[in-house]
Amino acid sequence: MNIELLPWQQEVMGDPSRFKVVVAGRRCGKSHMAAVSIIHSALAKTKGVTMYVAPTQSMAREIMFSKLAEIAHPMGLIEGSNINNLEMTLVGNRKIYLKGADRPDTMRGLSVNHLVMDEFAFFKSDVYETILRPTLSDLRGSALFIGTPAGRNQFFEIYCGAVSGDWPDYNGWTFTTYDNPLVDKAEIEHAKKTLPDWAFNQEYRASFDAKGSEFFKASDFPTYTESDRPKAPCQTFIAVDLAGFNEVGKSKAKTSRLDNTALAIVKVGEYGWWVKDIIHGRWDLNETAIKIFNAVRDYQPISVGIEKGIAKQAVISPLMDLMRQYNRYFRVEELTHGNKSKTDRVMWALQGRFEHGTITLNKGEWNATFLDELFQFPNQLVHDDLIDSLAYIDQLANIAYTSDYIEEEYELLDAYAGY
């Protein structure tokens, strides 16, 4: 085929990966890329059918049917087509089916040599795993996931896997509207000036992070160095949110998407909270105990709290061994959910404080991870371990202040009035 392609389209088409994930801005050339991919595979593969799937059947008709005809008809490649059934037959009886993810049962039982999933961010969550992926198995068919982001959802998850290097036969790319030289740059700049930042970033820059959290806004989260910290009297607290414990020597690739253990070290005073550090990572049981013990040694908090649960019970034993070994003892408070959902607990502890500027962050490598969690919260595909540990400071500080409170002896002055 002699079809003109943009540089980014040539790069993707020439890549040998079986599964390709393309995150692209609007008017980037996604539909043309998808159509060329479909026609090329249909002509190159003799067995099975080539299939295009859009979020709905009507979208498949509107986006792709005419696009395929526009490319294939002038080249004399079409033997027959049926717009009602959304089918097209190319020379050599090569079949192309256009489907909608809103009608998943119509795709069962097919043997597919190449699958294009357009605007994958808008697919129902289980359509690929339960319906589409099995159609590729007998012929070891290839797949192209392509579309513009819509927040962090299944498209984000598959993209992360593709670019991580941990998924065999996968590769991923991000292209913005700027990567299409046929789109007037003045038009893009006009959109940038007139659209909300999140909308422009999502639609034109192909950003998964564009809209962010419905609770926390990326407007102003200042960070300070130690010398900038308010000098008012304060007390240090350490709150620990435990994850599962890694097995020694276990491959990190299999746990890269799992929860992290997080230790929030916070100085609390009349001015509010100053977050000194949030130590986080995935460690085995003994490493976790060492991290907690060393943090207590280094920062000397007045109170340490660990989230209630099986993980706390497990880590207490090696932690006590360290205390005996180094003759340094400290009390561990038990932190609980308080019969609140995680969202409610985090919101109660953090939202008002951030809005009123009473939480400030120490500059550190952990800032980017923390703010990413914060601006995406709540999202099941984004970790929330760092913000969860910080939210526990609210409970821990209250425990400490309550235990320090000494009630004065009550003296009844008037037996009739009761006071």
Explain what the structure shows.
- The protein folds into two domains: 7-203, P-loop containing nucleotide triphosphate hydrolases (Rossmann fold); 223-404, 2-Layer Sandwich (Nucleotidyltransferase, domain 5).
- The model is unreliable at 248-256, 401-408 and 412-419 (pLDDT under 50).
- Helix 2 (30-44) crosses helix 3 and helix 8 (285-299) crosses helix 9.
- It has helices spanning 7-14, 30-44, 57-72, 127-135, 154-164, 185-194, 197-203, 285-299, 310-326, 342-355, 366-376, 385-404; strands at residues 19-24, 49-54, 78-82, 87-90, 94-100, 112-118, 142-147, 170-175, 223-224, 234-241, 261-269, 272-281, 303-307, 332-335, 359-362.
- Helix 9 links the parallel strand 13 and strand 14 (332-335).
- It has 419 residues and is α/β, with parallel strands linked by helices.
- Under the CATH scheme, the architecture of the largest domain is 3-Layer(aba) Sandwich
What is the H/E string?
HEHEHEEEEHEHEHHEEEEHEHEHEHH
- Gyration radius (Cα, Å) is 28 Å
Give the biggest sheet.
8 strands, mixed
By CATH, the topology of the largest domain is Rossmann fold
Strands of the largest sheet, in order across it?
Answer: 3-4-5-2-6-7-1-8
N-to-C CA distance:
96 Å
Overall structural class, as computed from helix and strand content, comes to: alpha/beta
Helix percentage range = 25-40%
